[in-house]
Design brief:
This protein is an alpha+beta fold. The protein has two domains: 122 residues, Immunoglobulin-like (Sandwich); 139 residues, no CATH class. Helices cover 43% and strands 23% of the residues. It contains six helices and ten strands, in the order αββββββββββααααα. The chain has a four-stranded antiparallel beta sheet with strand order 1-3-6-5, covered by helices on one side. α2 runs antiparallel to α6 and α5 crosses α6. The longest helix is centred in the middle third of the chain and has 55 residues.
């Protein structure tokens, strides 16, 4: 009910405005560690504009993203109203936790960014303060004076000799073969992660081929971003499509634009070749990474 009142109040205040206006607030004024909290973002804009909200790849720090729920767009007098309800969770213990998010107005060459006003929650601790000390009669101690027979005595000199020999052997092996051993495990880990990525990515795209769903397209691009971030050590999950295109010097322009249309415009393409292009690009990067490790 509070969320509905918040949305209706925002729409009423912005009914005669002609520019993009955004507002956001939490449902409640406090947060507990590990418990979900709802965060609602509302946007009012001329109906001929295209406005996008943050997706699951956006950093909601100090909160973590769990899910989101769109409310269907409402248009009145050529003014559109959109709202999204995010479910977030916090594992921080700061007494005050503040969040503000961007809303994007998509244009031909670039996007305009509108930031919501910051909204702050108070951290509510689940455990009260503990006393510094306890009385001796309140300590949970048990007395046991029964004799425990010792079955054997550890031979420390032999243990030290065996341990020294093993340690010396390990040092010699590491000095002689350490680089080769490290390289072997790095290559093995790379192959395992690549196989896991191909399996997850192919399953997601196959599901998209069976029935087009923007959420499945978003999940597929998230799988791709996380894997590219792993093998390139670049924060792909925090990059927008525009930033990735600039990073890769336009090599992925058509593919990323096609995926953005699926996710944000919710348009079904004639085919899903964009994901095949992303997959081929990733395989090439994986092979380059293998060569770097082998000859590094």
């Amino acid at each position: 009910m509070r969320r509905l009142q918040f949305i209706l109040l925002f729409i009423a205040q912005a009914a005669y405005a002609q520019e993009v206006k955004v507002h956001a607030r939490f449902e409640g004024d406090s947060v507990r560690i590990g418990l979900p909290i709802r965060y609602t973002v509302v946007a009012q804009y001329p109906s001929h504009y295209q406005v996008l909200f943050p997706d699951s790849t956006f950093s909601f720090a100090p909160f973590e993203f769990q899910s989101k729920k769109f409310v269907p767009t409402k248009t009145q007098n050529n003014i559109s109203y959109d709202s999204v309800e995010y479910t977030l969770v916090s594992f921080e213990i700061d007494s005050l936790q503040t969040l503000r998010v961007p809303v994007f107005q998509v244009q031909k060459r670039d996007s305009l960014v509108y930031l919501t006003e910051p909204d702050t929650l108070f951290f509510s601790a689940l455990v009260g303060p503990l006393p510094d000390s306890l009385a001796i009669n309140q300590l949970p101690l048990k007395t046991n004076t029964a004799y425990n027979k010792v079955s054997w005595i550890l031979n420390y000199p032999v243990l030290l000799i065996v341990g020294g020999v093993l340690l010396l052997t390990a040092i010699v092996v590491w000095v002689l073969f350490g680089k080769r051993i490290r390289k072997h495990f790095v290559l093995k880990r790379l192959h395992a992660k690549h196989t896991s990525f191909l399996s997850a990515f192919d399953q997601s795209v196959q599901k998209l081929n069976q029935a087009f769903q923007p959420d499945v397209a978003e999940r597929s691009i998230t799988i791709w971003k996380k894997y590219m971030e792993d093998i390139s050590s670049k924060p792909y999950t925090k990059f927008t499509s525009k930033e990735i295109r600039e990073l890769e010097k336009g090599e992925l322009t058509q593919a990323l634009q096609a995926v953005d249309r699926m996710i944000y415009a919710r348009l079904q393409p004639e085919n899903f070749s964009a994901f095949e292009q992303l997959k081929e690009f990733t395989i090439n990067r994986f092979n380059q990474k293998l060569q770097e490790v082998k000859h590094g």
